[in-house]
Design a protein that fits this description.
Largest sheet: 7 strands, mixed
Shape: globular
Number of strands: 7
Amino acid sequence: MRIREFHESDWAQVWPIVQEVVRARETFPYDPELTAEQAYDMWVEAAPGRTVVAVDGDAVLGTAKMGTNRPGPGAHIATASFMVARAARGRGVGTALCRHAVDWARERGYAGMQFNAVVASNATAVELYRREGFDVVGTVPGAFRHPTLGRVGLHVMYREF
């Protein structure tokens, strides 16, 4: 597996990943009726941000986007989001994408990275981010409507560089 810059031609494989994750309503607070065009505009970051794909040969296993968390006085903190294809989960794709985003942000001089809305019931992601040095710095109780668990919290997670 390798991680590389997103190319326009990758969207044919990235969109089904985004669509499946969003429509599952379990891990991302995005509109489940998101169209491919809306998703593209939201997921594909303009410079100086970056969107990447994790690939095995020609197959896209996962994707990440990264950039500045907030403009102006908050511009020294980065953020990132990750999605992994169902068939590729449990194979280290998410970990590799997270490490790539952290390295990208550190190389660009960011002071840290913040994840704004990690669904508290997404134990796999919370555990991965903790392993990679992130801490839960706050939780908004009941801020996410999970399809089977009801209202669960959204964590804000942070790692200083």
